[in-house]
């Protein structure tokens, strides 16, 4: 399993209701980009996988709790 797949799986436990719409949208975009990278049928480079993983991790770190 790649690091992007691992992060995608781990973020599945997060609930949209707990976070602001804007920060959740950023996470959703990052996760969807990671999924798209795996579904292209091409073999992504390690740099592409690392970038997707980093984007997901950054989006998780930037989540803002809903009030």
Low-pLDDT parts are none
Got a strand count?
0
Q: Name the quaternary structure.
A: single chain
Beta-strand residue percentage? under 5%
Which structural class best describes the helix and strand composition? mainly alpha
Shape: elongated
**Terminus-to-terminus distance:** 35 Å
Order of helices and strands: HHH
Sheet with the most strands, sense and barrel status: none
| Total separate domains | 1
Helix content: 55-70%
Arithmetic mean pLDDT: 84
- Number of DSSP helices? 3
Gyration radius (Cα, Å) is 12 Å
Summary?
The protein is mainly alpha-helical and 67 residues long. It is built from three helices and no strands. The protein has one domain (3-61).
Task: Describe the protein's architecture and organization.
The protein is an all-alpha fold and 67 residues long. It has one domain. Helix content is 64%, strand content 0%. The chain has 3 helices and no strands. Helix 1 packs parallel to helix 3 and helix 2 packs antiparallel against helix 3. The termini are far apart.
């Amino acid at each position: 399993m790649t690091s992007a797949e691992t992060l995608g799986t781990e973020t599945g436990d997060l609930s949209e209701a707990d976070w602001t719409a804007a920060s959740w949208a950023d996470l959703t975009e990052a996760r969807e980009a990671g999924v798209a990278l795996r579904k292209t049928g091409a073999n992504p480079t390690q740099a592409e996988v690392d970038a997707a993983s980093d984007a997901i991790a950054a989006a998780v770190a930037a989540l803002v709790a809903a009030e």
